[in-house]
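Standup, Tuesday
Yesterday: got the pipeline producing structure tokens again.
Today: sanity-check two examples.
Blockers: none.

Example 1:
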Amino acid sequence: MRLLLPFLLGLALAQGELTHVVAPGETLFSIARRYGTTVEELQRLNGLSDFLIRPGQVLKVGPAQAPTHVVAAGETLFSIARRYGTTVEALKALNGLQDETLKVGQVLRLPSTAPEPPGAPSGAPLEEEEALDPESPLLRAVLRYLGVPYRYGANSPLALDCSAFVAQVYAELGVGLPRTTKEQWNALPQAEGLKPGDLVFFSFGGREVDHVGVYLGRGVFAHASSYGSRVVIESLEAPFYQKAYRGARRPPLPQANR
């Protein structure tokens, strides 16, 4: 079954209902505020008798809504409109926008007829249009780190940098990776066409790679973001990342774990 993996961005549609996958550090209050509802309503929908929730828990947040897009760094109304086969004017009208200013993390409503976005960013085609199984060990490992703070040089449960995040995820799968971004780039074979589980590399400060994340399929990747100050999942198709993208490497992960 081919999935878009909307749950990777905290959203999912299941049996006509909108759901949210709890990330580390989230509370019922923060989730209620995000979706414009109340803590009491979340408790009622999910049969909760207290305020305790856990990372990875799937919460019902209300009836299914129109498709949405979470704005990533570097995206514009024009690039989003082109991605979903609509127009800037349609997006502005649907979201009540007076101009074309966007904020990272802003949720935009999309036309109900908007197609799924393409599965791979330009310059980084998939060998096949595939996505991670929701039950894959790799995806479960990634989700456990969502929201963990970013700190340069850090490698602990309290904070991580980009290469430490990647190394920690793969260590949970029994795969040892070098510690630094440059070492990971040099040690692993080049990926010919992106597949879920590949490492994606970027150069933000010069010619050499200085940032790394884990590709999850369907055009999204997880990384410890210095810009976002935490582990997040974002679109690899965003111009901000496409400009800095340098290539992918393939860790020796058994196919069963992907």
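Example 2:
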Amino acid sequence: MKGLLHGIDVSNWQGSVDWGDHARAGVAFAFAKATEGGDYTDRWFARNWEGMRESWIVCGAYHFARPKGDPAEHARHFLRTIASAGGLRRGDLVAIDMETADGLRPQEVARYARRWCRVVERRAGVRPFVYTYQSFAGAGNCAGLGEYPLWIASPHSPRGRPVVPRPWHDWTIHQHSNTPVDRNVFHGTRQQLTRLGYDPR
């Protein structure tokens, strides 16, 4: 597909990331894990945030959801972590990673996610992306999240042609490969992507 912007996502599993090398290879945007639950902070996040910024890569931060906890508390922890790493600038992206139910029923998982997204939106003025899998969303764990942009993990689909689960009608970012690093595409320009990000106005 033409008009695809290329990106990656990372966490502590990748250790030290050479952001300059990724930028030279054509990576235009990236997400780094910031937090998990209410008290875990990825020890590489601050370094990744700074590295993305210095390499002129569109910066994204994500929170790994633990639905058994307090979504408002988890959202505040996420935003504090970003603030301590230098904060949000115009065009920065945020996301919630929805892939575990923590033993809860789908409606409880979805309630957690909706609340987390609302708190982030209200406090930071940016609409989160929702990262999830076809089967996880299909089980009802993402009910009511259709207004948020979908970041779909679908490595078995052709790049830029993922299967879109309910409640969404279209995808925004497609994670199409997991080797040697998670690879993503956005169908549009850098300007169109950053319009979905933080706007300080």
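Quick observation on example 2: The longest strand covers residues 29-36. The CA atoms of residues 109 and 123 lie 21 Å apart.
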